[in-house]
């Protein structure tokens, strides 16, 4: 599947029926007015980021979304023992692989947080099968990373150190919009986001762990998935997770 570059912003069109040109000659006057392609997804515009809630005349909007967290395992201990340039190269590769897999499935990379990525599916590009798209993006991230020949990094002690990615996915309703007053940040918040983050921390190197809500929608693709019960930080009740195989 190839996600071609669109002339109009996919998000503005789907959400508001507004044709906002982001490529080609029609986009020039808009670019001059400060409306550009979004860094969260190159098929979206900056209205889809900070201005979206203003257009909707609300500070926050509640959406149904799938949240994917991915992080680079072993990064912290590695960064203490490796040349800075090596670490930066590794991080850049990680960001690139994650972003291309997420964009290919019409998700947005909401944030890069140090050695982790937060992606949102079903906003602002609506997808009936956003759960499935997020899972497929997660698989792609793991597959691409395994295929990389330079996964191993040589530390300053001359030891090869292998790093891998852990992926966690959850779905439900969350609130998206601007958070903060002095420093405005466009982000998604709510218990669904917290659980996605927690389930991600339970995933081991090279693993994708999803919640029950996610698994129910991709069961047909992963009949061999392994049910595990996790005691997650900050969550009292044990949580069921499925390790996708
Ligand atoms: Zn837009």
Question: Your description of this structure?
Answer:
With 245 residues, the protein is of the alpha+beta class. The protein is 33% helix and 27% strand. The protein is built from eight helices and ten strands. The strands form two sheets. Strands 1, 2, 3, 6, 7, 8, 9 and 10 form an eight-stranded mixed beta sheet that branches. A two-stranded antiparallel ribbon has the order 4-5. Helix 5 (84-104) packs antiparallel against helix 6 (130-147). The longest helix has 21 residues, at 84-104. The two termini are 22 Å apart. The model has no long low-confidence stretch (mean pLDDT 88). Bound molecules: zinc ion. Zinc ion (ZN) is lined by residues 9, 11-12, 20, 44-45, 47-48.
């Amino acid at each position: 599947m190839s996600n071609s570059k669109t002339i109009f912003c996919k998000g503005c069109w789907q959400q508001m029926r507004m044709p906002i040109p982001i490529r080609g000659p029609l986009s020039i006057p808009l670019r001059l007015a400060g409306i550009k392609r979004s860094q969260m997804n190159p098929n979206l515009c900056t209205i889809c980021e900070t201005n979206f809630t203003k257009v909707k005349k609300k500070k926050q909007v509640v959406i149904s979304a799938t949240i994917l967290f991915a992080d680079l395992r072993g990064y912290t201990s590695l960064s203490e023992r490796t040349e800075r340039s090596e670490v930066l190269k590794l991080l850049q590769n990680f960001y690139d692989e994650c972003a291309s897999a997420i964009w290919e499935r019409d998700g947005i990379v909401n944030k890069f947080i140090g050695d982790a990525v937060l992606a949102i599916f079903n906003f602002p590009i609506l997808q009936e099968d956003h759960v499935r798209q997020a899972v497929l993006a997660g698989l792609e991230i793991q597959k691409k990373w395994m295929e990389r020949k330079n996964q191993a990094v040589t530390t300053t002690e001359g030891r090869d150190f292998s790093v891998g990615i852990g992926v966690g996915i959850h779905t439900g309703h969350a609130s998206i919009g601007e958070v903060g007053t002095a420093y405005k940040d466009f982000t998604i918040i709510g218990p669904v986001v917290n659980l996605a983050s927690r389930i991600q921390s339970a995933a081991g190197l090279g693993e994708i762990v999803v919640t029950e809500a996610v698994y129910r929608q991709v069961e047909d693709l992963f009949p061999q998935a392994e049910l595990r019960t996790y005691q997650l930080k900050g969550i009292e009740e044990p949580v069921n997770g499925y390790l996708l195989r």
